[in-house]
Specification:
The structure is a single chain. A hairpin with a 5-residue loop joins strand 9 (117-132) and strand 10. The chain is mostly beta strands. It is built from 1 helix and 11 strands, in the order ββββββαβββββ. The protein has a single domain, classed as Lipocalin (Beta Barrel). The longest helix has 8 residues, at 72-79. The radius of gyration is 18 Å and the shape is elongated. Belongs to the UPF0312 family. Residues 13-181 form the Lipid/polyisoprenoid-binding YceI-like domain. It comes from Crossiella cryophila.
């Protein structure tokens, strides 16, 4: 059961609980379906200023080689030079630059770096609530999404289809389901 703590009561430093969180993505494949994947290894810090959410901040670092689309051959292709180039760029990072609040919704803007290319993105998050877990930890939950163009990050590989269109969409939807634990 989630509690009804006010945002000001949530002020503090939090660590993202990767075991109970998800950093995922969705790409259109062959113009007819979607392929979903996730990054299984990441960590992050959240600083919540409940009295002035604009002073809050987030840093997330993702191990790019933890990409998982449930298909080993595709995952190896994504790790290679056509896509993420893990030999040169082993991590993806997001560092917030601003936070705006509208009720339980937040617009988190920041610098997303993929393949040594940094672009500003805004992720729309919904505050899902708080809970005190059986171990006495205060947890907060957020869910969010944003869309990016993979070409903006230098990821341009594709294959033309006989029927028109391309094998992999340029638009990638990023999905975040975050559970974070307040530092003691």
């Amino acid at each position: 059961m989630t509690s009804t703590l006010s945002l000001s009561e949530l002020t503090g430093d939090y660590a993202i609980d990767a075991a109970h969180s998800r950093v995922g993505f969705v790409a259109r494949h062959a113009m007819v379906t979607k392929v979903r994947g996730a990054f299984n290894e990441f960590d992050g810090r959240i600083k919540v200023d409940g009295d002035n959410p604009a002073n809050s901040s987030v840093v997330v670092t993702i191990k790019a080689d933890s990409i998982d689309t449930r298909n080993a051959q595709r995952d190896e292709h994504l790790r290679g030079s056509d896509f993420l180039e893990l030999e040169k760029f082993p991590q993806i990072q997001f560092v917030s630059t601003s936070v705006a609040q509208d009720g339980n919704d937040f617009a988190l803007t920041g610098d997303l770096t993929i393949k040594d290319v940094t672009r500003s993105v805004t992720i729309d998050f919904t505050f899902e609530g708080t809970a005190k877990d059986p171990f006495g930890n205060v947890r907060v939950g957020f869910e969010g999404t944003t869309s990016i163009s993979r070409k903006d990050f230098g990821i341009t590989w594709n294959a033309a289809l006989e029927t028109g269109g391309v094998l992999v969409s340029d638009k990638i939807v990023l999905e975040f389901e975050v559970s974070a634990v307040r530092a003691a």
